[in-house]
Structure formats: C-alpha cells, structure tokens
Design brief:
3 helices; about 0% strand; mainly alpha
C-alpha cells in the first residue's frame, strides 16, 4: 500500500499550523502559566520576561510550522513508500 505524498504533506502542514496556533492562543490567554512553566523547567526566575507577538512573527511562525510539517510528513511517507518496494 502506497501513501500519497502530496496529501500526507498537506496533512502535516495543517497539523503543524494547528499546533502552532494552539500554543499561540495559550501564550496570549495564559501568559502567567507559560512563565511558571518556563521557571519550573529552566530553574530560573523569569518574572520580567515579556512575550510579545507581532503580526510579522505570527505570519513567519505559521509559515515555518506549515513548511516543516509538510516536509516531515512528506519525508516519512516517502521513506515508507520506498520500504514498501523493498518487501
């Protein structure tokens, strides 16, 4: 069974974009929760840490996550298809 590379890549792009947008919403709605998480994981007090999201950063983040998601899912499907030929 072969996997359609293009559809797999599009699914990856949508997945990457969706995950990015969910995290952006969490950062915008609950910045204190993110600061507490950063403090706990990095063992550093980050009380004066400011997170700003500009429209340009949002566009660049969306594009990069969609492109990387597309490429990763496409690559996994390509490797899977090449392994199917060998068996």
């Amino acid at each position: 069974m072969k996997i359609n590379l293009r559809k797999s890549g599009i699914i990856g792009a949508v997945t990457g974009l969706s995950i990015y947008l969910v995290f952006i919403l969490i950062v915008k709605l609950r910045p204190s929760m993110i600061l507490n998480l950063l403090s706990a994981t990095n063992q550093v007090k980050v009380s004066n840490f400011f997170m700003t999201l500009t429209p340009g950063a949002l566009v660049v983040g969306c594009l990069t996550h969609a492109i990387v998601g597309f490429f990763v899912f496409w690559l996994i499907a390509k490797i899977y298809n090449s392994q199917q030929k060998n068996t």
